[in-house]
Amino acid sequence: MTEHVRDVRVLSIPAEHPYTQAIRPPGVSYLPDPDIGGHWWPHPAFEASFWEARPRAWEADLVHIHFGFEHRSPTQIAELADAIDLPMVLTVHDIDNPHLSTAPEQAAHHERLRTLIGAADEVLTLTECAAERLRSDFGAADITVVPHPAITLNPAAARREPVAGVFLKSLRSNVVNEPAFYRAIAEAVALRVFIHRDADPRVVRSLAGELAGKAELIVHDPFDDAALHREVARLTACVLPYTRGTHSGWLEMCRDHGTTVAVPAIGCYAGQADAPGAVEAYAPGDGASAARAVRLLLERGPVAYAGSRAAQFEQVRDAHAQAYARACTKSRGGVRGR
């Protein structure tokens, strides 16, 4: 552990997300998220004016940006980068943002990323795949790859079934909403489809019709963590039905339970695989391709996580301690001209 970061106060954006809590090095303190109507966004620290006269309660030694800035224009992010007067660490979770649906929106997101990458003292990402793209497409010279830590350190015990599952939740914009996609999978393998009760009722009805007699459709209220982990642990494989994005905490949760994952061949989802056979890629939005990937996974059976998640936790936290120490050293040395 790097001793130089003990007693450092970090303004993490956000601070209380499960990922950002998991990566915290010992001895480092984190300012809490603001309470803005019951959630942390839009975070006030993304406003350039925040840095011109921030309240004493928000004094920190370092700022660590993760996500939540898609509501700011590229110009506003440029103003923010000029205003931040602390050492800055940036973790690039989303090169392609799953919440943005059009090419102009993604182009603006990429422009924001380039600005933040240029302003950061340290840039981290989760996979070698993402690091390569940041170097080639965003001009990032020095990237530290720190893998996604476990979501569940104590995986649920459940009776494994030779079934694949897909969790549609409330049908966010980056989730395939064409029932034919799921029907193609259900015609090839045993499939269990979960969808929130508050999802678009037209899609729920259409799914029910398409999957009748072919798959188990479970309409439910949102699961708490324990219930969700039990459902995932029962599955042999899980399908990520995404149309865009870069990395997935859901994939990591599945791997915590030894559940294998079918992922779209976009972003860096496949690059998160911890072991050969843990992940199979399919053509995005192609039900037949997804069916082939899921069939391979079910034939292979569960694949235990390769390595020690507990040891990985220590490595991840130490990597962040080192990144914080380097950022503070660079800032003191005037690298960013502050």
Automatic annotation (TrEMBL):
InterPro entries reported in the protein's UniProt record: Glyco_trans_4-like_N
Keyword set, alphabetical order: Glycosyltransferase, Transferase
Glycosyltransferase subfamily 4-like N-terminal domain ranges (all copies): 19-148
SUPFAM superfamilies per record: UDP-Glycosyltransferase/glycogen phosphorylase (SSF53756)
A molecular-function term among this protein's GO annotations: glycosyltransferase activity
Keyword Transferase: yes
Keyword Glycosyltransferase (UniProt): yes
Top-rank taxon: Bacteria
Name of this protein: Glycosyl transferase family 2
Species of origin: Corynebacterium liangguodongii
Taxonomic lineage from the root: Bacteria, Bacillati, Actinomycetota, Actinomycetes, Mycobacteriales
